[in-house]
Amino acid sequence: MSTTATATAPSRTVAPARPRRPGAARHRHRRLVTALFLGPAVVYLLLFYGYPVVQNVVMGFQQYTISTFFTGEAPWVGLDNYREVLGSPLFRTALLNTALFTVGSIAGQFVLGLGLALFFRRRFPMSGVLRSLILLPWLIPLIVASAVWKWLLDTDAGALNRFLVGSGLVDTGVPWLTSTSLALVAVIGVNVWIGIPFNTVILHGGLQNIPEELYEAGALDGATRWRAFRHITWPMLRPVVSVVLVLGVVYTLKVLDIILGLTGGGPANATQTLATQSYQLSFTTFDFGQGAAVSNVLIVVSLVFAAVYLRLNRRAVDE
Amino acid sequence: MTARGALWDERPVSRRAVTTAGLLAPLAALLAGCVGGTGAAPPGTLRVLDSYTNAPDNGIIGAALDRAAAKVGVKLERVSVSGSSLIQRVLQQGSSGTLPDILMLDNPNLQQIAETTALRPFDELGIPTDGYTEGVTAAGTYDGRVYGLAPTVNTVALFYDVRALDEAGVAPPTTWEELRRAAAELTGAGRYGIAFCGNATYEGTWQYLPFFWSNGGDERDIAAPQGAAALDLLAGLVGDGHASTSVLNWSQADVKDQFVAGRAAMMVNGPWQIPELSGVDGLEYDVVTLPLRDPGSQDPVAPLGGEVWTVPATGDATKEGLAAAVLTEFLADDSQLSMGEQRFTVPGKPALADAYLELRPEMATFADLIAGARARTAHLGAEWPTTATALYTALQLALSGQADAPAALAEAQEYV
């Protein structure tokens, strides 16, 4: 997106300002200018995106361990890393958890984010202040957020359980982070809290782009409240919604810090996702080859969604 | 996203502010690079890397290193990074050929690093290696040669709240049966009988090991019944409600916080907590060896903890020689005693035990345990991390009630 913008915009403004030249030279000149504008972006992409991705793909086929850093030797092992990783029982758990975590997080973030965005569409006293407060989870470093949530959700001394026990809703503290059946739910809940600002901001922006006249016209035809939402807001918001959802999926697939901070993948791998498994393989057991194999799987999944995003984005622009 | 006109706050950021930030960012990065620089030090100056970032350890180790350097007549340029990023730093330095002249490693990592040929063996450098406990020597040995030694070491034992046990009329437990009963009687009124660390990291493995080993468990065959019995003990404490289910998520520091806050009457922990525990008003505690299943026929086997010091192969023979001389002084008897006294860690040489206990009589339990403490890498060497992962996996399965102890260990063995 950015490359096409930098490439076409200048050539449009620069070319007419030059005096006329013979066709071939002018053509060459224009190509040079295009290359000069494109160059930095291409170099940047190749250096910081292309190289790491290629290196990661290659690493997935190598026995890349601690020794490799000292000797430079990384024997080629073909598909061994993938066979080992995909065949382990942990991979199935991690894959399922990744799917549940992503679907749960996106559903929660989107529904609550849309609700808040619709709410803030109305102007009312303090709406500006409240809107800014919504952004708070975004401003708190994730490590801090997970440390505070870990404390809030503690079984015995956590604020949430003190409230639940104190109000007589439960008899003893709920083991939010230490029960194998609840930990994933709790982690999803915290991630929803973190993701709400993003969803609210983007959806609110989309809502503001819907012309007020449509609602006025709709009101004349008797479309108010739910029917206005169903027949005006939702269709007009659709392009923004698809972008929010696809970006949300890509962001959520790679979530690592929140899970590490809250549960470390436990209890008994109940919150282990592909991202945490890849991290642990690479940086705890130092088997970088297998870690790369898992993260390549993750990259492929993300790529599918990124392709969907680009398609939707193009269609949205065309509209 | 912003291109869609979806800006949340419409107030624009001034162009000058953006430009200034853009200009300052590379400058800041450059400065940061200089501070953390790894360029070659001038001759007569040795570069040291360790992970003692916290007070008071940072200062105590620094002073001991400086004393050793002064005797040799060299200067030190010391960098301390957090324990979790030490290995990553070592790997970076290894691949860029900028390893320090003196390097500290956590003892379970030594064999992995030695395997890469990044370290110099002590016999070639002339650093004395005799007089250490079997465990310390084993932790520092790879393929029959010593590559690192620990001046002082530690392990875990049972801390208990003296007043809580007195009030409940409970004696410090010495057997598993007594431990179960004591934990049951001490539980109640916002307090659990015992706290320990059972989280999904090597810390969880480390706290499970003394029960596992003392009962005859063998890390080369983790699914054997001896290890399962030890796991069943810990799982039972949680299952009966005498330890919180939060042990699944607690680090050893969290366990100490629970004990200090009075939410656990006993805890499994190490002597590095003593400085903080001693500073707590109104807390009266004592330390005993972890209970055994059958003290009549079993001896306690403690896991050996502590950091080993090594000389990386930098290719600069002069500096390697100077580093060896500094480490020889740093590992000398008086240096071990001084660090052991200040840091509540036990000297690596058993011959120093008597002199040490005169300085630190309260460390008697730990000093006894260290004499027979076992290195985690003694049998498996560089393969240890895989088994350590399997052990904490089993611990998590059993403590969370997902599987009974034998099934948990059998399932975890698939990961080895």
From TrEMBL, chain A:
<comment type="similarity">
    <text>Belongs to the binding-protein-dependent transport system permease family.</text>
</comment>
<feature type="transmembrane region" description="Helical">
    <location>
        <begin position="235"/>
        <end position="253"/>
    </location>
</feature>
<dbReference type="Pfam" id="PF00528">
    <property type="entry name" value="BPD_transp_1"/>
</dbReference>
<dbReference type="InterPro" id="IPR035906">
    <property type="entry name" value="MetI-like_sf"/>
</dbReference>
<feature type="transmembrane region" description="Helical">
    <location>
        <begin position="132"/>
        <end position="153"/>
    </location>
</feature>
<keyword id="KW-1133">Transmembrane helix</keyword>
<dbReference type="InterPro" id="IPR000515">
    <property type="entry name" value="MetI-like"/>
</dbReference>
<keyword id="KW-1003">Cell membrane</keyword>
<feature type="compositionally biased region" description="Low complexity">
    <location>
        <begin position="1"/>
        <end position="17"/>
    </location>
</feature>
<feature type="transmembrane region" description="Helical">
    <location>
        <begin position="288"/>
        <end position="310"/>
    </location>
</feature>
<keyword id="KW-0472">Membrane</keyword>
<keyword id="KW-0813">Transport</keyword>
<protein>
    <submittedName>
        <fullName>Sugar ABC transporter permease</fullName>
    </submittedName>
</protein>
<feature type="transmembrane region" description="Helical">
    <location>
        <begin position="32"/>
        <end position="51"/>
    </location>
</feature>
<feature type="transmembrane region" description="Helical">
    <location>
        <begin position="99"/>
        <end position="120"/>
    </location>
</feature>
<feature type="region of interest" description="Disordered">
    <location>
        <begin position="1"/>
        <end position="26"/>
    </location>
</feature>
<keyword id="KW-0812">Transmembrane</keyword>
<feature type="transmembrane region" description="Helical">
    <location>
        <begin position="173"/>
        <end position="194"/>
    </location>
</feature>
<feature type="domain" description="ABC transmembrane type-1">
    <location>
        <begin position="95"/>
        <end position="309"/>
    </location>
</feature>
UniProtKB/TrEMBL annotation, chain B:
<dbReference type="Pfam" id="PF13416">
    <property type="entry name" value="SBP_bac_8"/>
</dbReference>
<dbReference type="InterPro" id="IPR006059">
    <property type="entry name" value="SBP"/>
</dbReference>
<comment type="similarity">
    <text>Belongs to the bacterial solute-binding protein 1 family.</text>
</comment>
<keyword id="KW-0732">Signal</keyword>
<protein>
    <submittedName>
        <fullName>Sugar ABC transporter substrate-binding protein</fullName>
    </submittedName>
</protein>
<keyword id="KW-0813">Transport</keyword>
